[in-house]
Amino acid sequence: MDASGNLYVADSGNNTIRKIAASGTVSTLAGVAGASGSNDGAGPAARFSFLKGIAVDASGNIYAIDNSTVRKITPSGVVTTLAGAPGVLGDTDGPGATARFRRPWGIAADAGGNVYVADTENALIRKVTPAGTVSTIAGTRGMRRTASDAATSASFFGPMGIAINAAGTLYVTDWYGPPAPNIPEGSTFIRRIDTDGTVSTVAGSFNGETGPAAFMDSFAIAADAGGNVYVAALNVVRKLSPTGAISPLAGPSSQFQSLEGISIDAAGNLYVTDVSNHTVSRIMQNGGITLLAGKSDEAGSTDVP
Q: 20 to 30 A Cα–Cα from 68, which one of 82, 133, 161, 238?
């Protein structure tokens, strides 16, 4: 969401970036429904192919994860590739097209125009400057576990969602998906990266013999100015307080099927994308749910109020 109350959606099935104005009108900002590729350009001249996370900076620029690259979209819809090369995998730090990612998922933007990428299959957290220079700020190459430590010696399983609060603290949903000996699949940990680079685990547990996991298959995450964190998964949104208390904010609800995106506005209202339902909904702090855009169980690409 931008400062004017416009919401942006990475419409992965249509390969487009959609805009939901504060009035509720939906339009396609960039890309063409049904057309895939990696072309930079203005509006319908641009192409996307594997859209994942999306974020907006203080100037209204939109950033999206697309086919192991970071794409930048201006408020007028001009698309450029900020970092990475389409479909080319790796973990190289460096400027622009020389940098490499390995199927990243989430992205967040800070007040200075830097973006942070949850580089999932590299198990790293990457930073991209406004000029497109990529560096690794947390995680250990070649190591997958939940070690909490200084940034250069900490490790992640599979960072998926990423959020940043007003103080510059990052929060990551660290998901264990692929099977490995003695580690139950699907467990998610909520990791925090402080401004000094220290990585810690603030919530989460392994599913299985040690008991039910606090979060299972949870990807989407948002953070507010009060230090609260919100995590969306399947049909429920949970709130994690600054003290570590976990409580359901909305759901489990039959209105949701597969929540994979979440954002928050200045008033504390949450916005969730339901991939299976093809909808965007608003959730108030009292748990009330309102359908904002889309029609349940009906896919398409129509732009209408």
A: 238
